[in-house]
């Protein structure tokens, strides 16, 4: 039951200050965050690519409050794309964006987020890659899906994310699969009420399997975002039953988690993409990683006690 408590703390400025100042924080953050700048993350992209892995890059910092910050987020992604172009890494690295970072929650936020993300999608396409729109809390999803649909009119490879714990997701999956969309499925990492989301973990896993089947049987490109060995195995079997070739779906895992498994899947010929986050405003992303797995929290607490 720690997960909901940690997710609530992810929105607390008081907890943000405490965690940021804790002696062991830097060591643990480095496990999940690839660095603070483009200069930090580009060598990691190159290293992962050399090992047969693909990457999706997330510039962290979705909790913005001004239009100027949304422009800065757009420009950070454009800078990243420029660096990838210089190094010829475009085909190995896509981008993941949170529309809240592009101004979705501000006044006229839907239009602002669309205006900010469009040049990022266009720049990504120019270097041979694409963008995936991350899912956030349930109140943002209608806007996210509408922006996704609009972007796909000119850039059909634009992807989006769906979350297995939401009751609406099976219907969303059917629509997206029929449309031929690139879709990443994850369990979900936001604190959601029982009125919109499944609360029981085994039931979330069952929903995840049902949604994977919908995606594998559909016309789109499934991206299985999970570290769970059982779900990975089920995903492989569903792909086989659907007659999918190894390049017609992919697995995705977070940077710093189950690295050996990432390399194993890649060595077997699977497309394996590493979700790699970087940036200075890491707190919200970091807290969601702690909430997802108790072992991550225990690792953090031990680090604080050791350094304290």
Task: Give the key terms.
globular, 13 helices, eight-stranded parallel beta barrel, single chain
**In which order are the strands of the major sheet placed?**
1-2-3-4-5-6-7-8
Mean pLDDT: 88
Biggest sheet architecture? 8 strands, parallel, barrel
Oligomer: single chain
Shape: globular
What's the Cα radius of gyration?
18 Å
Q: Which regions contain 5 or more consecutive residues with pLDDT less than 50? A: 303-308
> In whole angstroms, how far apart are the ends?
26 Å
The amount of helix comes to 40-55%
Question: In percent terms, what proportion of residues is strand?
Answer: 5-15%
Number of strands: 8
User: How many helix segments?
Assistant: 13
Q: Structural class from helices and strands? A: alpha/beta
What is the H-and-E element order?
HHHHEHEHEHEHEHEHEHEHH
Topology:
Elements lengths: L1 H8 L3 H9 L3 H8 L5 H13 L3 E6 L7 H21 L5 E5 L11 H18 L4 E3 L7 H12 L6 E5 L5 H10 L3 E5 L14 H17 L3 E5 L3 H13 L8 E5 L4 H9 L4 E7 L4 H10 L1 H14 L1
Parallel strand pairs: 1-2, 1-8, 2-3, 3-4, 4-5, 5-6, 6-7, 7-8
Helix pairs in contact: 1-12, 5-6, 6-7, 8-9, 9-10, 12-13
């Amino acid at each position: 039951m720690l997960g909901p408590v940690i997710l609530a703390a992810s929105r607390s400025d008081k907890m943000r200050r405490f965690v940021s100042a804790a002696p062991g924080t830097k060591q643990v953050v480095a496990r999940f965050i690839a660095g603070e700048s483009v200069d930090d993350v580009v060598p990691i992209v190159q290293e992962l690519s050399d090992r047969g892995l693909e990457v999706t890059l997330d510039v962290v910092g979705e909790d913005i409050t001004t239009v100027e910050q949304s422009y800065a987020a757009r420009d950070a992604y454009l800078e990243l794309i420029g660096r990838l172009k210089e190094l010829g890494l475009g085909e190995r690295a896509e981008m993941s964006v949170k529309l809240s970072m592009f101004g979705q929650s501000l006044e006229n936020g839907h239009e602002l987020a669309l205006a900010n993300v469009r040049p990022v999608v266009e720049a990504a396409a120019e270097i041979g890659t694409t963008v995936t729109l991350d899912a956030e809390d349930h109140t943002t999803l209608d806007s996210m899906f509408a922006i996704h649909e609009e972007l796909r009119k000119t850039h059909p490879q634009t992807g989006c994310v769906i979350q297995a714990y939401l009751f609406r997701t099976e219907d969303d999956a059917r629509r997206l699969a029929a449309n031929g969309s690139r879709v990443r499925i994850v369990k979900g990492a936001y604190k959601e009420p029982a009125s919109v989301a499944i609360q029981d973990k085994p039931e979330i896993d069952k929903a995840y399997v049902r949604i994977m089947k919908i995606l594998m049987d559909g016309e789109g490109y499934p991206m299985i975002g999970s570290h769970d060995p059982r779900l990975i195995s089920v995903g492989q079997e569903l792909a086989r039953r659907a007659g999918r070739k190894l390049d017609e779906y992919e697995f995705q895992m977070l940077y710093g988690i189950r690295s050996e498994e990432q390399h194993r899947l890649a060595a077997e010929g699977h497309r394996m993409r590493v979700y790699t986050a970087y940036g200075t405003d890491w707190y919200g992303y970091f807290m969601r990683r702690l909430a997802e797995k108790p072992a991550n929290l225990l690792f953090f607490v031990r680090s604080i006690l050791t350094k304290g």
